Amino acid sequence: xxxQSFEAVEKVAKANRLAIIFDKAGELVMIYTDPRHDYTDxxxxxxxxxxxxxxxx
Length: 57
What we know:
- The chain is of the alpha+beta class.
- The protein has two helices and two strands.
- The protein has helices at 2-15, 40-46, and strands spanning 20-23, 29-33.
- The chain has a two-stranded antiparallel sheet with strand order 1-2.
- The protein is elongated.
């Protein structure tokens, strides 16, 4: 059921060109984020914790 929910959320997000969807049922939780907005690798690189084999685009 959870997998179906996430697939539906992703489909709605893409169809409506949404970058982020929040779950308002409880604590503020993002349930979908367009991967192009994930800057985790950049932050890890800035902290010197990045994987030297990763290539940041």
